Known about the structure:
Elements: E1 6-17, E2 20-28, H1 31-41, E3 56-57, E4 64-70, E5 76-89
Antiparallel strand pairs: 1-2, 1-5, 3-4, 4-5
Amino acid sequence: MDNTDTLLIVFTFFSEKEGSTLIEQFLGKDLREALGDWYRGSIIKPEAPFEDDEPARVLTVKNVWCVSGHDVDGKFYLTHIVATVPQRIV
């Protein structure tokens, strides 16, 4: 890998809201970057978390987190995040 390549991770977001499941993917160099893009671009329109809110790590598996909250209309959502495939971006 040279200086022009960037390795990004595909984070898959599985969201449950009002009895429906939505699956979205966002790229990021780490969970924080992908999560920020998800808050800004997700179809479920999640409210941004409090500054110190972090997704909870699912302890029995690797590279899986959980976050919950309310969307901009006050509707509850539960989202699991899985770090899946690293992608080389040139």
